[in-house]
Design brief:
- The chain is mainly α and about 210 residues long.
- It has helices at about 5-10, 25-40, 45-50, 60-75, 80-90, 90-105, 105-120, 130-145, 150-170, 185-195, 200-205.
- It is globular and about 50 Å long.
- The protein contains 11 helices and no strands.
Length: about 210
Amino acid sequence: MLGSNTIHSLKQKRVYNGEIVAGSLLIPESRKIARLLMGNVDDEKWHRAIMIDNILQKRSPSTAKREAALIKNRLGLMKPELWEMIEKGTSEISTQAVLASAIKHSRLLGDFMDRVVRQHWQTFNHKISNTDWANFWEICSQIDPGILEWSETTYSKLRQVVFRILFEAKYLDGTRTLKLQPVTIVPEVRSYLIKNSESYVLRCMEVTQ
């Protein structure tokens, strides 16, 4: 039987989480959540905004709650300076600021960009495929065997969401063609990441440079 210390140690070794299945970049929704976070609302006001006022304009309370939680978990890893970029920035600034948050929140997303997208770009193979995801998944399972416990549905959904995020952030020209495009990080986001020592996030975002 495993002791409590051993069990804790095993849990600590988890590298990847599947929370990203709850949504892609969700830019309009992220702007609204950023506004709530900047207002430092309490639990009661948060509940009212999401569940009663339905500021995210979702068809069901469960979807609103799930997406709001995902965005809050992402943005909560960053500082108010980035929240302001998300809420008030141009479409490009807001998108890249949300992407930075999503990468920090999801190592799966970040590692796919850092390993797969970077390799394709460097070898002039500017198109990714479902096979690339399968090969990447195999590597990830060696790093974190726990992901093998996830269902086939989760595996497929994760692929769809990651590809969708790359499209929304303009790294792909479409979710069907899956052709890679060059992306230049806007100065505002790049400056924030450097200032806050977010070297992993910046490296992932600069894969086509």
